[in-house]
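PROTOCOL LOG
Step 1. Enter all chains and additional molecules of the complex.
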Amino acid sequence: MTTARRPSSDEPHVEFENIGKSYDGRVLAVQDFNLAVRRGEFLSLLGPSGSGKTTCLMMLAGFEMPTTGAIRISGRSVHALPPRKRGIGMVFQDYALFPHMTVAENLAFPLDVRGMSRDETGELVGRALRLVRLEGFEGRRPGQLSGGQQQRVAIARALVFEPGLVLMDEPLGALDRHLREEMQYEIRRIHRTLGVTIVYVTHDQQEAMVMSDRVAVLRDGRIEQAAPPESLYEEPERSFVARFIGENNRLHGRVLSIENDICQVRVGEHVVKAIRVAPCEPGDATTLSIRPERIAVAPRPGLYTNEFDARIRDITFVGDHLRIRVQACGGKDFIAKIPNMVGHGAVLEGDEVRIGWTPTDCRVLDAGEDHDA
Amino acid sequence: MMRSGAERRSSLRAVGLALPLVAFVGVMFVAPLVSMLVRSVHDPVVADAMPETLALLDDWDGASVPEEPVFEAAARELALLQRERAIGQVAGRVNRVQGGLRSVLVVTGRRLGDAAGDSWRESMTEVNEAWGEVETWHALRTAGERFTMRHYLAAVDLTRLPDGSVVRQAPDRRIYVPLFTRTLAVSLGVTLLCLLLGYPLAHLIAHSPPRRGGILLALVLVPFWTSLLVRTTSWIVLLQNQGVINDLLVAAGFIPDDARLALIYNMTGTFVAMSHVLLPFMVLPLYSVMRTIPRSHMSAAASLGAGAAQAFRRVYWPQSLPGVGAGCLLVFILAIGYYITPALVGGSTGQLISNMVAYHMQTSLNWGLASALGGIILVCVTGLYILYDRIAGGGRLGVT
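Step 2. Run joint prediction.
Step 3. Record the structure below.
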């Protein structure tokens, strides 16, 4: 289930090596941070607020200095380089467009300070405006533009001086949902057109999934998992990632035995078979995660290794699928999604049914912080 | 369409609530202002006192001493004024047009009763020779103008000759133009000094963490909570000849004890104390504008390749301009009309135009001239405000 993506080269463009950052000398905002971004890659830093993603971006841009470790761009340490000499295009959360300048002047600013000729400047500004489809807006001021248009200008300004690396700090946060989806598509298109390396910060997992070649999920200043979106969804390695990316049913239990990476896990009075992802030993506390769409409701008997009695509590019609809430495994609520196809009326609220899933769709992860078994 | 009764009632109530303020502003501000402006061009004292004389003088050719009927009318009216004990006020008005005429009128009024003769002209000239001079009659005619520009002319060191031509005062009598020039120069200097001192301070406050910013802002506001007199006299303590600064300079050996710096009761004192008193009026509008400039703009400028100086000049400074304009305008307007501080620490060389207005209001009682001086300041300030508004665009003042 891999999407066709522009192949990015294996050469690392940006490297974070053992980065640690503390603002007050005691609490670490970022720690043990190791990450390599390939040239041409679209990498998202994804995490809840306070996870250190913006700090990482600011250190890369040069506005914050790492407390420990080194950041390299194209193999060279940028420790001594001030932001203006790093040659990085940056899109700010609030766009940071200069309100006293027109769109064209905003775009010409990075070219002017580089001492480019008027002709060259005019040509590059024109090209950047064409890229973000804002031809004809040269003379407007930022205050006369809509949010989406301002966003495009901010992107154009970050690209106009042709940097190889562009950083974006939650650039779509201020837009409404419809516009956000449109801009996600636009940014992806621009990325593919130019082939620049983009490091993108967001707390919106769907945004990260849609746009990125690779997503690094951050939590408390550490990388939980860095992988392509498909892998994050299908093969989360940590319970935090499983919970953060998409929807998940989680079961807390204790490992009974392991055989060929298939674990027997005791969950309440039941034993569930699940696939081992991270190292674990019999006796370990664990979290099992199962995607809702992988839970079969009222399957043909004997089809699944894991089958349990369940009671349907309610059914929600969501359009293309039905969300079914069932109670099973000793009172635990499960969410199951089944496609809206002919025959879904086979189950009704209050029915006693069987639910089931294959062991490979059920992943044995770390205990997680809310483990209480 | 008729508005509903409820709507009309509520709008009436709104007007009613604003009424006390409107009445207050009208009575306490607009009316005195209008009255003073009228006084600067309207002076009926002499005109009301000597109507017949002035009517006859209207037909006078102005070249030679007037005819007998003019003398007769003048004598009669002066005698009447003497009886009514109103001659002093009239004499004072005429005296302002030409110095020395006060005693001429007063003495004439007192002695005319005794004089009797065929010719009032002879009698009056006998009492005082001045009546035989053309200038005296010109002065009387000028003082008798009910509506006059002479206060405004005087306020800019001009005077009208008997033939009606307007010329500059004699060099030793030019007071006001140099004083206006000095006032403008001091106001400009104080404004610039406040900008130089206030801009970095406002920047620091606006971009400090809230806690530190709050403390700094409170420090700026502390002077507002202190009496202006206390602040000004504190400067006297600091700057005077035996004051803190001179003592320190002498103790440090920078200046000998017998050559202490004259820091107060001169222009330096006015300059220093005014800048201090007016600094908050620069800092506050600057702060309120700078606070709205996002920090990300400077980061953005840096990420786009601009150095600190370039980023400041092209990104920060232009965005802070409304604050600069508002602050400068506020400080400049306040400085132009500044009174207490120069009066206390200005000595003789540090006096400004307001001190002259006060002098004419309280001491010389030449309210017409005081009003004219005030009117000129008002026009200057209004003109500046309109100019600023044109340049900066309407409604962009940080404070109004």
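Step 4. Note key features.
Chain B touches chain A at residues 294, 296-297, 299-307, 310, 314-315, 318-319 (CB under 8 Å).
The longest helix of chain B spans residues 5-41.
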